[in-house]
Amino acid sequence: MIGDIFYFIGLLILIMSSSNLINFLKFFEIRKWALTFKKVTGKDVDRKDFKSNEDYNIFTIYSTFVLFESIWFLLGLITSSWYIFLGLTTISVLVRIVNFLKIDFISKIIGFSFQIIKFLIILSLILNHFHFHLDWLQLFR
User: Distance between CA 32 and CA 102 in Å, rounded?
Assistant: First the structure.
């Protein structure tokens, strides 16, 4: 029962992940602009500083979602698929480290690839919980 609730929340995470996947390139450009804005002005970006409400919404939704997704990944560490969640969490941290290198082309490719892989892994976890009931460790041995 608790697993069903956890993976139902995972379904919501999957829906938001698909939204973030669709808006990734736009978010990447908005984030780049926001970092430049902070560097030039010395202050954080405020709602009125954005070019449009759409840009503000994409930036806010993406940033907020990353927090909820991270919490869901950490809670996933206490499930029977803990090794998958540990891998996702580790890769997520590595992708954030690559983003700090500020090499836009590489950050964009790695970030977008990770978004696709993450979406597919979350989808697989949800399908496995509700339908397949496979033991992932047995599958990869």
Answer: 9
